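We now fix the convention by which a protein and its fold are recorded. The integers have meaning only within a learned vocabulary of local backbone shapes. A complete example follows; check for yourself that the lines match position by position.
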Amino acid sequence: MAVELRHLRCLVAVVEEGTLTDAGIALGVSQAAVSRTLAALEAELDATLVRRTSRELAVTDVGATVLVHARRVLAEADVLVREARSGHATLRLGYAWSALGRHTLPFQRRWAQVRPQTALQLVRTHSPTAGLAEGTCPLSVVRTQPDARRYDSVVVGLERRFCALAADDPWARRRSIRLAEISDRTLLIDDRTGTTTLSMWVEGERPATEPTNDVDDWLTVIATGRAVGVTAEATVSQYPRPGVVYRPIRDAEPIAVRLAWWRGERHPATDTAVELASALYREA
């Protein structure tokens, strides 16, 4: 036997109602059915979740832990049912770093005009697929080519690359930077979700690197002057930070901005998102 939603609902009802009888009333089943379902869950987990006495029920430490997860699973199940019944009433758009940059707000505002029947929710997920692999969103903004065996994607625009550096760095007085110049600096790289790799430089002319795992950490280190960063244009408008300036890299290849989704699992609002994002990048 595997743990089922009815087992979790039973546990939650028992805890919230306080007695097996009241839990049965809340669930619309008999007290005996509640007792059997709770016992089945405890047997499956090989743990006592609720201690029964003649006067009261007491949740064990294990039961309290299971209860937290049970409530979370049931809440997610409710969301699943509501979205399925409402015909995908919400589109969760994932992103890992900078969403659509300066186009993010216009995208949100125009979305409400062109697709009022579908709510838009932006979800930041620090993963290479910006939430697709994790199941947190059906559509995501990515700036690297996703695995074509698992995901479909389309390019909606191109962005320039910028060098991020401390505001008091000598380069801050310049209008632009050349890629080769960065070879003499320490470069912060996010290997998980970033768009910068050492393949941008020829072997033997590659900069020293330090790892970073989050845009806030990235900006904090850059502000100290210890290292510089290379990033997509979207970061410039999405993350202004006192002590950090951005300068365009005039000889670097642009970055393709893509919308991606699971192959064979296309959200009904995908075409709208692609058309709207593409239009915003064309207008830039």
